[in-house]
Design a protein that fits this description.
- The structure is a single chain.
- The protein is 33% helix and 19% strand.
- It contains 16 helices and 20 strands.
- It has helices at residues 7-16, 26-29, 53-66, 118-125, 144-150, 157-160, 193-197, 231-243, 256-264, 290-303, 315-326, 328-331, 351-364, 391-410, 435-448, 472-476; strands at 22-23, 46-48, 70-73, 90-93, 100-104, 109-113, 130-131, 167-173, 179-183, 206-213, 215-216, 220-228, 250-255, 277-285, 310-311, 338-341, 344-345, 370-374, 379-380, 382-386.
- The protein binds flavin-adenine dinucleotide.
- Residues 35-36, 71-79, 82-83, 94, 114, 136-138, 142-143, 145-147, 149-150, 152-154, 201-202, 206-207, 329-330, 418-419, 455 line the site of flavin-adenine dinucleotide.
């Protein structure tokens, strides 16, 4: 159900914020109709850009008074329709709240507004030999608030853990406009409310400030690239490397279609285009012992028939290898008007068979698929380019996406590694959770967000009974889908 905004609400918003911070023109708000997942669209009635916790709280209080739904938005790079205003109402953009407020170097902490771009934190503290570890491939544009809401991962989370391991405290505007401070620099007793908030996908309130942990820049880094003749062999090499007890900072895999599209794009990384797969490995930490680890990894790659083994000579060569990986989704823009990036997890040892089956699913649905993924975590990202104007193709893409998730669950995996559930997978929660599980989650949400005004329509099945797998038709017919 959409909510028409009362003119007096708009007038109050305009009195409380600078005129340029309240957008109501349909052309202006259209930009906010979706996130990076263009399959799910729904325009907001208005967009506001507050600059402080107090301004966010004032806006949220007005939403509560008028019974208007609202959704926080960082950079809109999400890939599950999380920031889509499913029921209209207000988008509250944190884009103007991008300051790093305080640095505590002795305790390696930073207090940041949550609209700060992820990479800016590391840039800001680099001169002190520190960095912020969570590194989604979108890190040059995504915000800390989005990372917190999605509990985002990234290539280096194999070693360092996802966002939740790096957030110690939060200032949150609750859905009734009350401001609370959760957690802090020292371990707190009682329930871990910060842990609960991280990953709640914007349904518990709006985080306006976060106290984050900074890591010391590693003494040494080595980036290695091994091309393989088969994806199966490359995946087996990954399992064997991990089985040795080595914990690389990153273990990333790209298949041939991905390699080819990257190399054809502006960000050519120098990956061999005839390889069936390339494995990108990064080691970091103490310099002592790193050569030995490199040698052990080389041996595993050789054992599984790697065509070659390349070690980046310097920081520039390393950056080039990473640019290819980090620009992979963007490079796929040359293939079609839209891109559906699936996100499922499987046990690492099941990667080879699952990838074969993903290929079979794609063939059956007459779609193309390119795979780029966090191999160390078993976190798959089958990327499906499609034309959003072709209703039949859209339906086939969504159905294939669901089948891929069913496959992940069937082999003991899960339906999202890092992109969240959002709008996209709300009807797939039944693949993994029982009615009892979902009811418990709903009751948690209702404690934080009792009237359901904060980011409605996310996470929980909307089109069928709780815990029951939704029909594919109902996924395609979800509000605003494929418009
Ligand atoms: C090219 C590309 C590569 C990507 N690579 C990765 C990757 O490697 N790993 C990964 O995990 N993700 C990745 N993503 C997905 C995405 O970038 C992350 O989910 C990111 O954290 C979203 O941040 P954002 O600022 O864009 O959030 P948005 O898309 O604006 O919002 C995402 C969710 O967070 C909520 N939200 C935003 N700010 C707040 C706040 N302050 N308080 C409460 N809720 C809030 C929104 O309501 C929404 O539900 C990638 C995306 C792209 C386009």
């Amino acid at each position: 159900m959409r909510h028409e905004l009362d003119a007096s609400l708009i007038a109050k918003l305009k009195r409380g914020l600078p005129p340029e911070s309240v957008l109501v023109d349909p052309h202006h708000v259209l930009v906010y109709e979706c996130d990076g997942s263009t399959a799910f669209k729904s325009s907001p009635d208005a967009v506001v850009l507050p600059r402080s916790t107090d301004e966010v709280a004032a806006v949220v209080r007005l939403c509560s008074e008028y019974g208007v739904p609202f959704v926080a938005r960082g950079a809109g790079t999400g890939l599950s329709g999380g920031a889509t205003p499913s029921e209209g109402g207000l988008v509250i953009s944190l884009a103007s709240m991008n300051q790093i407020l305080e640095l505590d170097l002795s305790n390696r902490l930073a207090l940041c507004q949550t609209g700060v771009v992820n990479l800016e934190i590391s840039r800001h503290v680099a001169r002190h030999g520190l960095y912020f570890a969570p590194d989604p491939s979108s890190q040059s544009s995504c915000t800390l608030g989005g990372n917190i809401a999605e509990n985002s991962g990234g290539p280096h989370c194999f070693k360092y853990g996802a966002t939740t391991s790096h957030v110690l405290g939060l200032t949150v505007v609750l859905p009734d406009g009350e401001v609370v401070h959760l957690g802090g620099p020292r371990d707190s007793v009682g329930y871990d409310l910060v842990g609960l908030f991280v990953g709640s996908e914007g349904t518990f309130g709006i985080a306006t400030e976060a106290l984050v942990r900074l890591m010391p820049t590693p003494e040494a880094v080595k980036t290695l690239l091994a091309p393989f003749r088969s994806m199966e062999a490359a995946c087996e090499a990954v399992s064997d490397i991990v089985a040795l007890g080595i914990v690389p900072a990153a273990l990333e895999m790209l298949d041939q279609p991905t390699i080819q599209v990257i190399e054809a794009g502006v960000n050519a990384a120098g990956y061999p285009v005839d390889a069936a797969a390339v494995l990108l490995v990064e080691l970091d930490g103490a310099a002592h012992g790193m050569d030995r680890m490199e040698e052990e990894i080389r041996q595993q790659c050789d054992k599984h028939g790697a065509v070659s083994f390349m070690v980046a000579r310097d920081a520039q060569a390393r950056a080039r290898l990473w640019l290819g990986r980090k620009a992979a989704f963007g490079a796929m823009g040359r293939l079609s008007t839209d891109l559906y990036v699936q996100d499922g997890v499987v046990p690492r040892s099941r990667l080879p068979e699952v990838l074969v089956k993903v290929g079979e699913i794609a063939e059956r649905y007459r779609i193309k698929v390119a795979n780029v993924f966090h191999a160390g975590d078993g976190n798959l990202h089958p990327c499906i380019p499609y034309d959003g104007r072709d209703a039949d193709e859209c339906r086939r893409v969504l159905e294939a996406g669901r089948e891929i998730l069913e496959l992940c669950v069937a082999v003991g995996g899960t339906i999202s590694g890092e992109h969240g559930i959002g709008t996209e997978k709300s009807d797939h929660m039944g693949l993994l959770f029982s009615e009892i599980d979902l009811d418990l989650m709903r009751s948690l949400r209702d404690v934080w967000n009792p009237r359901g005004l904060c980011n409605p329509g996310k996470l929980f099945p909307t089109s069928s009974g709780c815990g029951e797998a939704a029909s594919l038709g109902s996924v395609a017919a979800a509000p605003g889908a494929w418009i």
